[in-house]
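Record 1 of the preview.
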Amino acid sequence: MNSEFDNDQKQLAGIAKLFNEAEIAIKEIEDYGSELVVPAVNQLRYCGNHLVRYLSDTSNKEELSDSIKHCKRAAYDAYESAIVYHLFEFKKFKDDYRRVQITPVISDYADIQQKIIQARNFIRNNNESKTRGEFYKDGRKHLQLLAGNVEKLNSNRDELNKAIRKERTTLLSQVVGGIAAIIAIVTFIIVYSPS
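->
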């Protein structure tokens, strides 16, 4: 009986550690939007539900295992929602600057795109709802990499906007120059044409 109690205590300590990790994940992503934390918070609620069931019947050890799964899933869901948020931010960036050459301003843009694709693939490849929680630590790594790169892209918006304005000014000058040349040719033809 005593070893069973010790084992339960170890599992409960493990749950407390995982619960804390999930809370840290939730706090990390709260700044991106409070709606992003809802799936993770729900998973922690389920964790609590399983713990209460275990406490009401300590012979039901499966409740501890389920509680562990929900803690891991809570952390995964927190990171997943923040990754999806940053993927949308990247899509917005790409849409905003689809007609601009980005690499003259952000020389490692191709590398950034590769890292973003890796994060997108991480989400796509972990779509099995029963096993997602096992990848919660990887989610944090992908989020940190993705968030840093999206932040880098967004911090270069001013420089890219300057490039757009410069391109528009050049195009406008060319159009005005072309129109002036056409007017000059037409005027020359009218003035010097034998009538």
